[in-house]
Amino acid sequence: QVQLVESGGGWVQAGGSLRLSCAASGRTFSSYAVGWFRQVPGKEREFVAAISWSGGTTYYAESVKGRFTISRDNAKNTADLQMNSLKPEDTAVYSCAAAQREIWRSYYYTQKGSYDYWGQGTQVSVSS
């Protein structure tokens, strides 16, 4: 079992930055891929970024590429999402997720069904 807790959300003006952190319990976290997803009311949860268990491979949604950076520290059991140049359309509840099963194909990193454990989410609000 892995429990995930997000932190670092808040309110920021457009163009600003926030850093989200996902803290995990459980000794096996270092072997899990981690993804960040976001959701606004009335819409499907959407993929934002993902990182392989080793941290060697990362994936990003086109809408955040070049602005967001995902990273992880397996020694600390954390995975972070650095968000720069934020836009009002980035406003959402951001959740981190961990995949217990190994993900072999890049497509599946972007799919919420690949992830077994989810945090409760943290609100990010960007004003224009």
Walk me through this protein's architecture.
- Strands 2, 4, 5, 6, 9, 10 and 11 form a seven-stranded mixed sheet that branches.
- The chain is 3% helix and 48% strand.
- The protein starts with a strand and ends with a strand.
- It has 128 residues and is mostly beta strands.
- It has one helix at 106-109, and strands at residues 3-7, 10-13, 18-25, 33-39, 46-51, 58-60, 68-73, 78-83, 92-99, 117-118, 122-127.
What descriptive keywords fit this protein?
128 residues, mainly beta
Question: Proportion of β residues?
Answer: over 45%
Q: What's the number of helices? A: 1
Shape: globular
Largest sheet: 7 strands, mixed
Task: Break the fold down into its secondary structure elements and pairings.
Layout: E1 3-7, E2 10-13, E3 18-25, E4 33-39, E5 46-51, E6 58-60, E7 68-73, E8 78-83, E9 92-99, H1 106-109, E10 117-118, E11 122-127
Parallel strand pairs: 2-11
Antiparallel strand pairs: 1-3, 3-8, 4-5, 4-9, 5-6, 7-8, 9-10, 9-11
Short account of what is shown:
This protein has one helix at residues 106-109; strands spanning 3-7, 10-13, 18-25, 33-39, 46-51, 58-60, 68-73, 78-83, 92-99, 117-118, 122-127. The protein has 128 residues and is mostly beta strands.
